[in-house]
Amino acid sequence: MKNKIINYSKVFESIIRVQMISSLYISSLTYNELKEVCNCSDGNMATHTKKLLSEGFILTNKEFVNNKPQTTYSLTEKGREEFVNYIKLLNNVVNQEDKI
């Protein structure tokens, strides 16, 4: 079990990225909605969204709403699968701890 945790995606090493992924698992969110959920600065948002984009966990959709640019983020199928696997891994760890 220990090796599975060590070898797991570095995407999940950041609480902000975990918050982003778990929020996007429920529904797509605009930049401002996601920023509010994660309670982070514009700089943190840029850093963490770039990481999630480069790893193929999220997609962006940019459009104009009421003549203002709006970015919406959504979870990719890969992001969804990786998140589900991460939750299963955490559940297995917790279940193992209960047996000790």
UniProtKB/TrEMBL annotation:
Pfam families: HTH_34 (PF13601)
Limits of the Winged helix DNA-binding domain: 16-94
Lineage per the UniProt record: Bacteria, Bacillati, Bacillota, Erysipelotrichia, Erysipelotrichales
Recorded superkingdom: Bacteria
Secretion signal span: none
Protein name: Winged helix DNA-binding domain-containing protein
